[in-house]
Design a protein that fits this description.
261 residues, alpha+beta, N-terminal domain of MutM-like DNA repair proteins, Helicase, Ruva Protein, domain 3, 2 domains, five-stranded antiparallel β-sheet, four-stranded antiparallel β-sheet, 6 helices, 22% strand, elongated
């Protein structure tokens, strides 16, 4: 599933079309669900020049000479320019290209095409997307911003895994990254955020930054240390402890029964 690391790869791919002029755009009814109509995408993008790319969490932003174009990738969305993909494949997504899975795209004056490919039909296009509901970006998170993530005003707060998945708190962490961060930090994902000790908070911040840096270098959110034991009946690759599984924050979560306390 595309998380912040995958969408950053998409952004880097989209850099290839900076300076290109859009001659045509299209979006099907699924990709256009955040728009007034599918045709509004085509009308908005025609004759615009791509000036830059950026990103907030899992939201790709394509800056143009007019509006800002946004793309969200859902669970299985992949960005391609012609036949070049931003990543080799998604762990839970498609590993092949099919024309019927193309949901939206842009065609440029030089003949190139940027397309949004998504079998599950959950990816979305947006025009001038609102960023106010998104927290700080996970790839550039500062210690001060991290402090706000673990600060709870009243009560115990949500489970720390659920807190990390809240895009209004920190933008870009998905299910696999959340599990990997907590695996590296040695923290039970069910721990209420407000009950984290000072030592756990320090370990969590260190694990957060190391996970982002290491998995970006490896090439994806699915390349973490915990993945070897991420299946029913699996065992921790660090200490051999049984891997437990439950829904936390609405997502299937895996953690080690031994070192994640």
């Amino acid at each position: 599933m595309p998380e912040v690391l995958e969408v950053e790869s998409y952004r880097q791919l989209a850099e290839r079309v900076v300076g290109a002029t859009i001659v045509r755009g299209w979006a099907d009814a699924y990709a256009a669900k955040k728009l007034p109509s599918p045709s509004s995408w085509a009308r908005a993008v025609k004759n615009l020049t791509v000036t830059a790319t950026s990103r907030r969490g899992k939201l790709l932003l394509i800056e143009t000479s007019g509006v800002t174009l946004g793309m969200r990738f859902g669970m299985t969305g992949v960005l391609l320019i012609d036949q070049d993909a931003g990543i080799d494949g998604l762990f839970y997504g498609p590993h092949s290209y099919k024309a019927q899975w193309v949901r939206a795209g842009l065609e440029f004056a030089d003949g190139r095409k940027l397309v949004l490919h998504d079998p599950r039909r959950l990816a979305r296009c947006e025009i001038d997307p609102d960023l106010s509901g998104l927290g700080p970006d996970a790839l550039s998170l500062t210690r001060k911003e991290f402090t706000q993530i673990v600060r709870i005003g009243r009560g115990e707060g949500p489970a720390i895994k659920a807190r990390l998945l809240d895009q209004s708190v920190v933008a870009g962490v998905g299910n696999l990254l959340g599990d990997e961060i907590l695996f590296r930090a040695g923290i039970d994902p069910r721990t209420p955020t407000a009950l984290l000790s000072s030592d756990q908070r320090n370990r969590l911040y260190s694990a957060f930054t190391r996970t982002m840096r290491t998995l970006q270098r490896r090439g994806g959110s699915h390349l973490g240390e915990h993945m070897e034991g991420r299946f029913p009946g699996g065992h921790c690759p660090l200490d051999g402890g049984a891997m437990l599984s439950s829904a936390v924050g609405g997502r299937t979560t895996y953690w080690c029964s031994t070192h994640q306390q």
